[in-house]
């Protein structure tokens, strides 16, 4: 009769009768704890409330005999008479123990689910770390390949430059061999020789002989100045004559002869210089002369 007590206990604990009978039958009537484990494990199954189509003996844990099947109705009353009657306090105590057992099973189930959730989280993190490590290795491989590609391109560029330099050197050597001398030592075409120039130390470079005129500024003793343009081949005496004709009269009405001096470098022109062209005296294209009184000889 223990099975009937387990069934009633499960019903007292709030389980539907169909579920309780099904749990006891499928656990082989191994007790309330086994039935409760099955009920809590399969409470979310969609067919948990479907009736179990098995003989009554299976529910009670044994095959019914022919005598039991024939006298089932008669023995029912006897079983009812032989069943111990529990007092209200005993029923409450039994219900309390069953509820505590249910709570314990519920806590165990929650703890198990929590452990499983933690294990799944650890597995997820481990997989994430492995994926991150794999991604990092892939990135490092790509960077390594990119660096190798850059080194290869640089080496090819250096090799190409070296080939160009070698080709230039070969071309130089071939030209040197062809023209009978080292490359770069070919003499330039001869420049036209300048014509003969006077050996005067104050003469301008030969290119200045191309000037046809000469601009002369003459500074007088009184601080004034005269400016006149002469032909480059005129003699210095023409400048002296121009000064004597255009300078102002001196006090006393006399006109002393003048002497011409160059400003820089300092030079006094002699009577022999008066017969020389301005070009030869280095006064082309322009010059500044100073007038000084000629000392009597």
TrEMBL record:
Chain ranges of the UBA domain: 1-42
CDD domains documented for this protein: UBA_UBXN1, UBX_UBXN1
Record keywords, A-Z: Coiled coil, Cytoplasm
Biased composition (Basic and acidic residues): 86-122, 137-177
Domain UBX: 209-291
Ranges of compositional bias, category Pro residues: 186-199
InterPro entries, per the entry: UBA (IPR015940), UBA-like_sf (IPR009060), UBA_UBXN1 (IPR041923), Ubiquitin-like_domsf (IPR029071), UBX_dom (IPR001012)
Gene Ontology, cellular component aspect: cytosol; nucleoplasm; VCP-NPL4-UFD1 AAA ATPase complex
Sequence ranges of Acidic residues compositional bias: 42-52
Subcellular location: Cytoplasm
Region spans: Disordered: 41-220
A GO molecular function held by the record: ubiquitin binding
Keyword hit for Coiled coil: yes
GO biological process, one term: negative regulation of protein K48-linked deubiquitination
Name assigned to this protein: UBX domain-containing protein 1
Organism, scientific name: Chlorocebus sabaeus
Lineage start: Eukaryota, Metazoa, Chordata, Craniata, Vertebrata
Gene: UBXN1
């Amino acid at each position: 009769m223990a099975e009937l007590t387990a069934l009633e206990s499960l019903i007292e604990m709030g389980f539907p009768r169909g579920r309780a009978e099904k749990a006891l039958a499928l656990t082989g009537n191994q007790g309330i704890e086994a039935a409760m484990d099955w009920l809590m494990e399969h409470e979310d199954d969609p067919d948990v409330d479907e009736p179990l189509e098995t003989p009554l003996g299976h529910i009670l844990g044994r095959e019914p005999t022919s005598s039991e099947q024939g006298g089932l109705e008669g023995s029912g009353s006897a079983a009812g008479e032989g069943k111990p009657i529990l007092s209200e306090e005993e029923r409450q105590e039994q219900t309390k123990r069953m509820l505590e057992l249910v709570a314990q099973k519920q806590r165990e189930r929650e703890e198990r689910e929590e452990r499983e959730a933690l294990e799944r989280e650890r597995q997820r993190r481990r997989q994430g770390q492995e994926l991150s490590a794999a991604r990092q290795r892939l990135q490092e491989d790509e960077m390594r390949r990119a660096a190798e590609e850059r080194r290869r391109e640089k080496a090819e560029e250096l090799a190409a430059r070296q080939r160009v330099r070698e080709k230039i050197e070969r071309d130089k050597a071939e030209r040197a061999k062809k023209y009978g001398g080292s490359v770069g030592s070919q003499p330039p075409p001869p420049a036209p020789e300048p014509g003969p120039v006077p050996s005067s130390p104050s003469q301008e470079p030969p290119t200045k002989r191309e000037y046809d005129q000469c601009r002369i500024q003459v500074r007088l003793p009184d601080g004034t100045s005269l400016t006149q343009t002469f032909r480059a081949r005129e003699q210095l005496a023409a400048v002296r004559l121009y000064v004597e004709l255009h300078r102002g009269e001196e006090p006393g009405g006399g006109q002393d002869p003048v002497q011409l001096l160059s400003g820089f470098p300092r030079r006094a022109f002699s009577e022999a210089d008066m017969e020389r062209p301005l070009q030869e005296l280095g006064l082309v294209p322009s010059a500044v002369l100073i007038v000084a009184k000629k000392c009597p000889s």
